[in-house]
From TrEMBL:
One of its GO terms (molecular function) is xenobiotic transmembrane transporter activity. NCBIfam families: matE. The keyword Ribosomal protein does not apply. The keyword Cell membrane applies. CDD domains: MATE_yoeA_like (cd13138). InterPro entries: MATE_fam (IPR002528), MATE_MdtK (IPR050222), MdtK-like (IPR048279). It is found in: Cell membrane. Its main location: membrane. This is Probable multidrug resistance protein NorM. Belongs to the multi antimicrobial extrusion (MATE) (TC 2.A.66.1) family.
Amino acid sequence: MAVTKAVKDKTTDMTRGNPLKQMIWFSIPLIIGNIFQQFYSMVDTIIVGRTIGVQALAAVGSSGALSFFILGFAMGLAGGFAIVVSQRFGAGDNENVRRSVATGAMLSAAFAVALTLLSALSARWLLEVMHTPQDIIDDAWRYLVIIFWGVPATMFYNYISSVIRALGDSKTPLYFLLVASVLNIVLDFVCILNFHMGVAGAAVATIFSQAVSGFLCLIYVGKHFPILRLKKSDWRFDRNFAWYHLRFGIPMAVQNSVIALGAMAVQTILNGFGAIAVAGYTAASKIEQMVSQVMMSFGLTLATYTGQNYGAMKLDRIRDGVKKITIILLLISAAGAVLMILFGRSLTYIFIDAGEQNVEEVVRYSRRYLNVSVCFYPALSAIFIFRSALQGIGNTGIVLVGSAVELICRLVGALILAIPLGYLGVCLAGPFAWAGAAVLFLIIYIRDIRKLSKKFQCGELATAV
């Protein structure tokens, strides 16, 4: 089915044209958006650390892995459902684009309710299981339970923005994310400094800002994306079609949560080193995410690109796109490593008040983590490249296997290395997991590309109708 002129104005067909140019221009808004999203997450941490104290910083940090366990699952579902949209759009099948969007929306709503109830009611127990230090567990719970009650807002924004990106528009979600970022910063100061809500204020600001961003996207979509104006018939629930979406959504969701499980295990071991070590690790993790968000942005671009070209059965373009993104991310890995080594110490000071006790100890813990992790940035970039390519071409099973490999490597690394090496062993756990998963994804990508070559030569393509 042909794409209308009105739709072309707001979408990008990535099945033709210069792959490198398309992916760079598509990635730029994603990079800006992800950095801003990370920036206002950092602002939460900075304001908490500098206005409330190191204990509060440790409380927010100790809840990070547990938070991502639930939010990562929600975001993985949203991204997985949108891959089906990109495949149908690449095939020029507008009717099934609409059906896919409606099916994804229904599934997202059901999962949002279930995740909210499950996570909010179990938050305190999970913090206790992770041996969260008693001097920070109350603040950690206050922050976490609000984040969990806001799961529907998080899933709402991520699903709408993922659908828009699946149609080749990476700019629209950025505009509203920028608005949400500014709103989040303002609300941080209002809730924490004016209303004296403590760490709970940072959580309220984050959730409210995400909800606003989601509603703005929805309003804009209704006015400017004719292809997404759903009909009553689009909302008919088809179990087979829903299952096809779950084949993409569940592996990506589980992938995120399994990674979070590994991070929770590492956090449990880290908690044993005390609040100061937790604060230093938290600051370093936030700093590092500025680099990983750039890598992730290109990964999201590659998932959309491969999804559309898979739908159009253009294997040469998939190969070409993966090769060029690999070169870009290797360069970004090198640049990120240099920046972390040169400025990691200075950036850590942003998160803490110079007048606090144990400032230098917090900085020392942060620097140690950064100096270790930068050596493994090429492996981290390889995960984003080959995992995204595999998701785009429909190999969802390997995502689960890769997540399991990453979890095992992280657990083994943390449990074994922390005994002889202490905090340094904890720092090595994540990079050890990156290396294991990267090797697996690279091998499977090479294998699957060869299989696709034979399939496309026979004119075969797995579709969902």
